[in-house]
Structure formats: structure tokens, C-alpha cells
Structure prediction request, 149 residues.
Amino acid sequence: MPHAFKATPDHPAVAYLVRLHADIGGRLLDNKKEASRLASSMLAVEHVIKLFDPDFNARTISARRRQKTNPWFKRGTLFREALGVLRTATGPLTVAEITAGVLGAKGIREATVKQRNGITAGIRSCLETNAGKTVQRAGEGVPMRWKLA
Prediction:
């Protein structure tokens, strides 16, 4: 019969979980303070809007998420880098090969999986947008291969 887990108050994990709970509580307090500061700032902005337009309904304003920018590629440069990789290629390349070439050309080796996936998605989107204009699909099959038009 397998050993059954028994949760007891003197279990070694309890002390760690208590510390973890306290740490999360501290971070929550910090975030609550920041949230109240931001809420008061929003209220001040709403009052200024009311000065200009007393009939304005502030509830119609939706919160805007901040877009996290890519630390290596400014707006519009990712596709140019991908075109540079395609120019130097001897044959059609997949999006993964283009991504590896772009990161290698920039000397980026410490990209996380999430960052690499974001760059791959950006390159794929640019290639699809410019399909038939600057780049074209090479043949059929999966994964799709791309070459210059």
C-alpha cells in the first residue's frame, strides 16, 4: 500500500508556506498602496475632464493595456531584418530558420522562449502581410517556406 501523505502542523513545509504567505501579503499591500495612488490620479483627471465637459460620462473610458515593446527591434525593423536574412539565404527558409537568423544577426543568445515566440509571431505576421509583394511562399507543405519575390 502506498505511503499516504499526512498534513500535520509540524510538517517542514508549513514554515516555508507561512513565509511565502507573508511575502505575498507584503507584495499585495504594496500593490494596494499603488492602486489607491493611481485611483486618486484617475479621479483628478476625471475632474479636469468635467471642467471641460460637465456632461461627460467617465465610465465610458475603458482601461488601456500597455503594450510591451520588444527590447531588440524597434517598430518596423523586424521585417527588414527578416528580409536581410532572406537575401543572404541560398534557398527558401521556414519562419523558425528566419527567426534564428535574425536573432543570430543581432547577436541575441539570451532570448527566453516567450521572447523567441513573440519574434517568431511578428515575423510570421509580416511575411503573411507582405506575401506576393516583397516575399512569396515557396512550394506547398508544412512548415511553410519563404523566399524573396
